[in-house]
Amino acid sequence: MKQRFSLYELNSMVRDVISMSLPDSYWVEAELSEAREGYGGHCYLELIEKDERSNTPIAKAHASCWRNRWIFIKPNFERITGQRIHAGMKVLLKVHAQFHENYGFSWIVDDIDPNYTMGDMARKRLEIINTLKAESVFELQKELALPMFCQRIAVISSATAAGYGDFCNQLADNDYGLQFQTRLFPATMQGEGVEQSVIAALDSINAEWEQFDCVVIIRGGGATSDLSGFDTLALAENVANFPLPIITGIGHERDESVLDMISFQRVKTPTAAAAFLVNHLTEVYARVMNAQEAIVQNVKHRLQVEKMRLDRLSNTIPVQFSLVKTKQGAYLDRLMSRLSTNVQSKLSEAQRHFEILSQNIQPILERKMLNESHRLQLLSQRIQAQDPELLLKRGYSITLKDGKSIRSASQLKSGDIIETRFAEGSVKAKVE
Question: How confident is the model at residue 79 (pLDDT cuts 50, 70, 90)?
Fold first, then answer.
């Protein structure tokens, strides 16, 4: 008969073989495709190795870090690297092999070297920085200028973050009573969703960027280990090419992300971002007040100079006026003398001409008057000869009808009343 084993017996044999063949711990380089903390405080990792040229996975394995080791490894790793263990991170693990009859094979993590991960993070960060410089966008934000009256603020933050409330309160309660208008664009500020969430908020602001003076990206609270989401090429490119100045307040003094490097201004905390904006507007206010004072002083100085000049002019005016008056008086005297001489000459000439005309006209007028007098006498005689009274006295009569003289019998008809006047008296008659 063929020898048969139960599954448990077979797995036990595998366990014994592995424990005898791989009795030691080994340092292994791998990339994390998954990292999660499970129930009971244990950490479960999925390890992967990719081909450098094709990026195709060529090896996979499961690793576990039990709670009694994880409580020491985790804080040390996060303290040194400034990040939590997460998918996509490269790590150097010290592991030993374990095969369990019920759960199968797994690598058990004894330690994780944070310095290896730090080197890989630095390498990735340097690659991102070199890429941004090669694209000539690394310094674009630094070339922007913060508007003088920077008061319309677009804020990218978590709506429930204490840092966002601190930022708004710092702006509202400034010592100078300066006014700011803020508008929140909510975003995830920790974990794996940071990159896409912040980019989406930037896209929303960019759609109406003319409504704002600057953008503030703040992250209040949270662990330093959550800063990994701000060290990505896509987010850095979005910020570098953004049309408005971007102020970041996402970390602590010793932690500088790629986002901090390429932003217009990096500050430590949300309250520091608010203080930066208040100080900027305060400086502008001081410049305005200084300019106002300078204008007032310049105007006062100019008025004093002009007053002194007018005083000097007013002192010289009487002398100048006296000289002008004398000069103009002499000129007017000469004009009057010339005018008087010319008038006298014209009058004398006109008088001589009038006398000559008088001597020539008088005989002509006398003859004309004599002729006209004779003509008037003749006309008078003719008029007197035509006087109706004289005709009546000679025996003539005048027949009238309605006060008008009748020259022809055809002007009368039967029944008309006519009046006949004589030199002495008149009669009325009726025509039959």
Answer: confident
